[in-house]
Amino acid sequence: MGRYDHSFAYHDRARRSLSRGVSSAMKATQAPVPICASHGVGSHIWDVDGNEYIDFALSFGPMLLGQSSKVVVDALRQQLDAGIGFGAGNRHEAPLSELICDVVPSAEQVVFSNTGTEAVQAALRIARAATGRDRVIKFRGHYHGWLDSVHVAIPGLSGDGAGTGGQDSMAAEQTTVCDWNSVEALRAALAEDVAAVIMEPININGGCFLPEPGYLEEAKRLTHAAGALLIFDEVITGFRVALGGAQELLDLVPDLTVLGKALGSGLPISAVCGTREFLSVVASGSVNHMGNFNGSPLAAAAGVATLNYLRDRKEEIYPRLDASIRQIATAFERARADHGLPVAFNHTVGAGFGFFSDQPVLNHDDRLVSDPAAYGQFAARMLDRGMFIPARGLWYISTEHTEEDLARTVDAIMDVAKDMAVNPDRGAQ
Ligand code: PMP
């Protein structure tokens, strides 16, 4: 019996009817096989072979409260008995938008969508309607979902082209790609008429890169001077790096904010928020905000439970998310120092990004010369030791990770580092 036999068998079966055998490209890259999860509790998940893992993927971010969070499950159960979907408003939408307005500094009003991608589309429409302009500036190595207009110059891609086959080659004609953290580059890009500048305020998808001191302030000043709107895509950072997201942590309020992931604790819900003035284009009906499942009762109920939980415990939660990711960072430093492994690790509160690289990875270009295949090997060997980390480098911490989880993870990192120093080319078992 092999450790992943049932996952291999499931993947073989799935591939026959489900193209690529998984439902997103992100899951397809996992070696030795995309595992099939069976269940999860707190910071741990199990696969169909009965293997137990400490979960640092957190469903690629959403499971900030861990798996099967009692407050979320209770809220869902209650709503399940009351109805799953209505062609009408439901009693969780207003409480959820009130909570968002309470905790997110830029929020005076909210609109709901289902995914981050859709909310980005809504934010761009709002910005275009509010300014009467078309052009959007996005940054190299920032990710805003898979919309044709902004799925260009994506993380890890060299060149500024489309992120995948099949994109409309004309859709990004009104998108200017720009270097992040460069005031001069942004100033030049703003010479044209621009509706919006969209960025991850902490570029987690690119490699967990932080803005240079003063950059966000200058970017906001230049954006406003050019008559454009500043959009923070806080799909990852929202509710994770601080209750109010990166805009709270970095003390810089954008015009519009895109939220998703942690908002629904695994249920599909996303949001755009901003001032009443900018959202008036939705209130007036000039921007027709659509979507069958927007603010659906189950997802909104999960959102209310999640935000109430985080708000009530924020003094304790955010320092712990920070301390926990620092333990992982320290383990990477030790792996480099003690075993000569060429690893780097960038981090912010509750999230980090690991690389195999001879040099520090400080921006999009540095990432392009890192070694994703070696990191993939590392991730596969961590999987063998019961650590579930995405092969692309991201790490997420939940409120449920314990001291013991972290101590075991640090041991596993050191163990894998030693193993890789001795057997650099051994495949995953
Ligand atoms: N923006 C950011 C910053 C993201 O990280 C993601 C998803 N990883 C998206 C947008 C798109 O969200 P979704 O996958 O829910 O469409």
What's the gist of this structure?
The protein is of the alpha/beta class and 429 residues long. The chain has helices spanning 5-17, 25-28, 70-82, 93-103, 116-131, 183-189, 204-207, 215-225, 246-249, 276-283, 297-312, 314-339, 364-368, 372-384, 403-422; strands spanning 37-41, 44-47, 52-55, 109-113, 136-139, 175-178, 196-199, 229-233, 256-259, 270-274, 343-348, 351-356, 387-388, 394-396.
Describe the protein's architecture and organization.
40% of the residues lie in helices and 14% in strands. A seven-stranded mixed beta sheet has the order 4-10-9-8-7-5-6, sandwiched between helices. The longest helix is centred in the last third of the chain and has 26 residues, at 314-339. 51% of the residues are buried. The chain contains 15 helices and 14 strands. With 429 residues, it is α/β, with parallel strands linked by helices. The chain folds into two domains: 5-68 and 314-422, Aspartate Aminotransferase, domain 1 (Alpha-Beta Complex); 70-312, Aspartate Aminotransferase, domain 2 (3-Layer(aba) Sandwich), CATH 3.40.640. Helix 4 packs parallel to helix 11, helix 5 (116-131) crosses helix 10 (276-283) and helix 12 (314-339) packs parallel to helix 15 (403-422). The protein binds 4'-deoxy-4'-aminopyridoxal-5'-phosphate. 4'-deoxy-4'-aminopyridoxal-5'-phosphate (PMP) binds at residues 60, 115-117, 120, 143-145, 200, 205, 233, 235-236, 260.
